[in-house]
Amino acid sequence: MIALEQRKDEDYRTLGEIFFFMSDELADITFSESLQIILETMIESLYAVFQVTGDQIQMFISLFVDCLPIFLQHVLTKTTLAIG
User: Are 25 and 69 in contact (CB under 8 A)?
Assistant: First the structure.
């Protein structure tokens, strides 16, 4: 019983919902959402650094997607090819 009381005093997870609300992390995002965020940021960086045109970006995206494994190509064609 002493060990239980000590744990209650030291381990915040024993506080029930208070711990959950205090340690709640950011909402999980899906793989395709995170991949889309990364690619959008990369494309914005390409515009800023290399001053490319929209057509060049589309060509880059097509080449990039074609070099990826098939399962990633399917995710990207559904979510990010409208970028540019």
Answer: no
